[in-house]
């Protein structure tokens, strides 16, 4: 017995991508509504994870 999941998987993946796109849109809207606060939060996040960077990796 052969089970074909290609159609179901592509449908599920399309739904996942759509949900992530909506989350991206909401986050961008929030970030644009308060750019100074967003910059401060992003800078604090970068500073917090900067030491966790593996050797040899460059900043993008």
Break the fold down into its secondary structure elements and pairings.
Blueprint (H helix, E strand, L loop, with lengths): L5 H28 L1 H15 L11
Describe this structure in words.
The protein is flat. It contains 2 helices and no strands. 72% of the residues lie in helices and 0% in strands. By secondary structure, it is mainly α. The model has no long low-confidence stretch (mean pLDDT 84).
Structural class: mainly alpha
Uncertain runs with pLDDT below 50, 5 residues or more?
Answer: none
Strand percentage: under 5%
What's the pLDDT, averaged over the residues? Answer: 84
How would you name the oligomeric state of the polypeptide chains in this document? single chain
How does the overall form come out from the CA principal axes?
A: flat
Number of strands: 0
Distance from N terminus to C terminus (CA atoms, Å) equals: 48 Å
Described by strand count, sense and barrel closure, the largest sheet is: none
Q: Roughly how many Å is the radius of gyration?
A: 19 Å
Q: Can you write the helix and strand succession as a string?
A: HH
SS summary, helix count: 2
The share of residues in helices is: over 70%
